[in-house]
Amino acid sequence: MSTENVELVKGVYSVVNAPDLVAAFRDEGFLREMESAVEPLTDPEFTFVLAEPEFTGLGGVYEGHQGFVQAQRDWLSAWESYSNEPEEFIEVGDQVLVVAREGGRTKTGGVEVEILSATVWSFRHGKVLKVEAYQDRAKALEAAGLSEDTRTFVVSHSAKPVRLAWDCRPKARDRRLGLHASPFHVRVGDATRYFT
Fold first, then answer.
1. Domain topology for 3-147
2. Spatial CA neighbour of 97 closest among 117, 76, 70
3. Which of these, 55, 83, 87, 90, has the minimum number of CB atoms within 10 Å of its CB?
């Protein structure tokens, strides 16, 4: 498994994330900086897929790094404020599954919403080839070749490693990922913990 892929995804999040994405996307300087930073990290055939049109009302494939920006704009158009905070980066072969906590206030009605989402990142020649965005973690797990019956997984980064280790004890159900884990190992930075 390649930690370079995880670091690449973290790099993309560090460039495209802001405390309020709606406000950030109104700033042309932010958008120019984001596009210029994302372009060299993506494959020339890069695609961004909003994989659940039945949930979002949006859907389809956005091509190129400009498509990535447009997909974000389309998604953010329904929100007054919005944030996306990645919680875990999980290596799955040559893919990375990112579990994130997203949320904000809708334009219509001002409803506060929080979503536990997941994205599957695929790579080619050290660059991001495809990102598939899911609101249903089970569908993201399936897209990454995992299922609720998966017995082994690797967490390469967690904002809360102590809670993660507690939640993911052998044979315990990890509510956030929907996985049963036994045995497994957790890697945070250079340290790896093995649980059997």
1. Nuclear Transport Factor 2; Chain: A, (3.10.450)
2. 117
3. 55
